[in-house]
Amino acid sequence: MEVCTLEKRGNLFILTLTGEDEHRLNPTRIDGIRSALNRIRSDSTSHTGSVLITTAQGNFFSNGYDLAWAGSSPEKIRLMSSKLRELVADLISFPMPTIAAVTGHACAAGFILALSHDYVVMRKDRGFLYMSEMDIGLKIPAWFFAVISSKIGDAMVRREVLMEAKKLTAKEAVKRGILHEAYDSAEETVKGAVELGEKLVKRRWDGEVYSENRKGLYKEILEKLGADETTDDLKNVAIASSKL
């Protein structure tokens, strides 16, 4: 099953999560995304002056972990968490600027995936950003906190996102400094991401230097990616799965 497509437009690489589903993050989807990233890395033209844009078809950017797939299986839960942490590490070490063009809902782990990009843009007409863990009784892992803390500078906004499970529209997220920009529709969001990408391409930054500097900036995230202590909390995962 195809989970994503990869298009190259000059020095822009556009990775699109495919299908009209919720793009939940299970090992198959994550492996597909990582495979696309590896293809970009192997492109000899990608190491200077290139940009990655990640977007999605349908009403969801990603609705988070595929808890229905994992159920209460310890092995599946740990595998799913491990795969996503590897994907986030890939993005933090990726040798070019990255842009998430959020064209629908980005929830829980899907929100974390979007924030793992350097820039996040989003449509205004529908969709929201939402950390659902408080509402479904699921403990938030330390590495999620590290991503949120590194990407959202305002402590009051972090409280809204994590402790109040506030559903943020694109307009609200721009005001809170979470988004780089918001656009009127999905099409305009992708167009805006492309325009931003083209501006970044013109900077002709060295990809390896960009990667090393980003890894230094987000050292705290990388340090937390080695383990996810919540994957042993099977009761909470089962409860969360039952509320989908």
Automatic annotation (TrEMBL):
<dbReference type="GO" id="GO:0004165">
    <property type="term" value="F:delta(3)-delta(2)-enoyl-CoA isomerase activity"/>
</dbReference>
<protein>
    <recommendedName>
        <fullName>Delta(3)-Delta(2)-enoyl-CoA isomerase</fullName>
        <ecNumber>5.3.3.8</ecNumber>
    </recommendedName>
</protein>
<dbReference type="Pfam" id="PF00378">
    <property type="entry name" value="ECH_1"/>
</dbReference>
<keyword id="KW-0276">Fatty acid metabolism</keyword>
<comment type="similarity">
    <text>Belongs to the enoyl-CoA hydratase/isomerase family.</text>
</comment>
<dbReference type="InterPro" id="IPR001753">
    <property type="entry name" value="Enoyl-CoA_hydra/iso"/>
</dbReference>
<dbReference type="GO" id="GO:0005777">
    <property type="term" value="C:peroxisome"/>
</dbReference>
<dbReference type="GO" id="GO:0006635">
    <property type="term" value="P:fatty acid beta-oxidation"/>
</dbReference>
<comment type="pathway">
    <text>Lipid metabolism; fatty acid beta-oxidation.</text>
</comment>
<dbReference type="InterPro" id="IPR029045">
    <property type="entry name" value="ClpP/crotonase-like_dom_sf"/>
</dbReference>
<keyword id="KW-0443">Lipid metabolism</keyword>
